[in-house]
Amino acid sequence: MMLRTMKRYFAEAIGTFMLVLAGCGAIAVNQLSDGAITHPGIALTFGLVVMAMIYALGDTSGAHLNPAVSIAFRVAGRLPTRDMLAYILAQCLGAIAAAALLKWLFPSSQTLGATLPAGSNAQSFVLELIITLMLMYVILAVATGAKEKGIMAGIAIGSTVALNALWAGPICGASMNPARSLAPALLSGHTESLWLYLLAPTLGSVAAVFLCRLTHAPGTCCTPDTACT
């Protein structure tokens, strides 16, 4: 039992490491290569790595890869508090390890793929809240317990990540993920707007739990013993 539990936590660390390495790495490479990857390419990279990790790790840990997702699953009664806390720690450690590797690989990168508002903080806060709500709403609809279900779950979730990054990325960075924003911010020193990328995705993901309740049958979004059912 202990070995199985540790595998789940390790899977979250590995999955989030891959997410930050590929996604933030695409941003860094794009900046250092005069836009060779392009914005659509960056959005597609994030969507594809999320999809790949869901198929690789979904059966082990659920492939949350995102503290906001784990918190929302806890609110929905689908994840015990102990696992939520362990998942968040593993996700943050995996993300920081990836950002450290990117800093070593691309020392001339100024941001390491950190999320920074192109406009006002208020504008980016609202956008991050909305797009994370959209992402979590889709996740809840295709998940059983705290894990994704069916062969199309990875495609649905990865596509939502890419979609949100395509339209909102140029303004807010389309983080949707506190760990993904925390790691490059800490390693690059660009922490000036970090608070909004920690708070807005968390609020958006929790709000999605209650929105899901309004549009789905009882028990679909939350377990029967939680307040949102």
Low-confidence stretches: none
Tell me the helix content: over 70%
How far the N terminus sits from the C terminus, by CA atoms, comes to: 30 Å
Mean pLDDT: 93
- The H/E string reads HHHHHEEHHH
Strand order of the largest sheet: 1-2
Helix tally?
A: 8
The general outline is globular
Question: How is the main sheet built?
Answer: 2 strands, antiparallel
Number of strands: 2
**How much of the polypeptide forms β-strand, as a percent range?**
under 5%
Give the helix/strand class: mainly alpha
Rg from Cα: 16 Å
If you had to describe this structure to a student in words, what would you say it looks like?
- Helix 1 (2-32) packs antiparallel against helix 2, helix 1 (2-32) packs across helix 7 and helix 5 (121-141) runs antiparallel to helix 6 (153-172).
- The mean pLDDT is 93.
- With 229 residues, the protein is mainly α.
- Strand 1 and strand 2 form a beta hairpin.
- It has helices at 2-32, 39-61, 67-75, 81-105, 121-141, 153-172, 178-188, 194-215; strands spanning 143-144, 147-148.
- The relative contact order is 0.18.
- It contains eight helices and two strands, in the order αααααββααα.
- Strands 1-2 form a two-stranded antiparallel ribbon.
